[in-house]
């Protein structure tokens, strides 16, 4: 009886902590969204009040859609994010499969070398990256951003996926080899479907930093035709006057793709996290 009460108490405490953390994390999003539907005066007078008939105003969304090329910025962000995710998942899964499946000299050192990419921020190499992109003629192109974000996401992808691929049954892969499947067929048809939860986890943790990044778009692709949605939102922030209605509206619209991705991958994401916890 005492053990049951103790377990229930710990469960309640854990849920209380998680709920508190969730509320703290969602509070800024809530403030941004509700204020994007309010007039400028209402934003500063009552920032925590929901939009009501008296203060309801869509001027922020009208400004975003009329001023600035919001749809171009959105399109650029989607291209960069989707392409980067594709290459991170493809090359990360291939590297993870090689490290987990094949034993060769330097296997452990290679894994540790890739793991260093998780601990060392890529922004420390900004000057060298900029010089490289200038030499290659890739400044003010989306290709520059895709290359940087792919390099940024690969270490975490390899680290997570290699652990999951080690749990895939050797008997299954050996049976595929006996049936005459090539290593590529084994990888794409047998291994990848079994690590979908891990792929979803990597996709979510990779997409959010890419979508929200301001640093590399500002340095590598600041031209009007290559601005991402995060950088494009800065057009409404001036040195002396800031159009907060437009800024909040742009940020609210920028949240939508992240929510859609989470809804798509939420089940796989939870499975991947819980599977990693069990390990």
Automatic annotation (TrEMBL):
SUPFAM superfamilies: MetI-like
Membrane topology: Multi-pass membrane protein
Cited InterPro entries: MetI-like, MetI-like_sf
Transmembrane segments: 12-34, 78-99, 111-130, 142-165, 186-211, 246-265
Xref: CDD domains: TM_PBP2
Main location: membrane
Keywords for the protein's UniProt record, in alphabetical order: Cell membrane, Membrane, Transmembrane, Transmembrane helix, Transport
Domain ABC transmembrane type-1, first and last residues per copy: 74-265
Pfam family, one: BPD_transp_1
The UniProt record lists the keyword Ribonucleoprotein: no
Top-level taxon of origin: Bacteria
Entry's localization field: Cell membrane
Family: Belongs to the binding-protein-dependent transport system permease family.
Protein's UniProt name: ABC transporter permease subunit
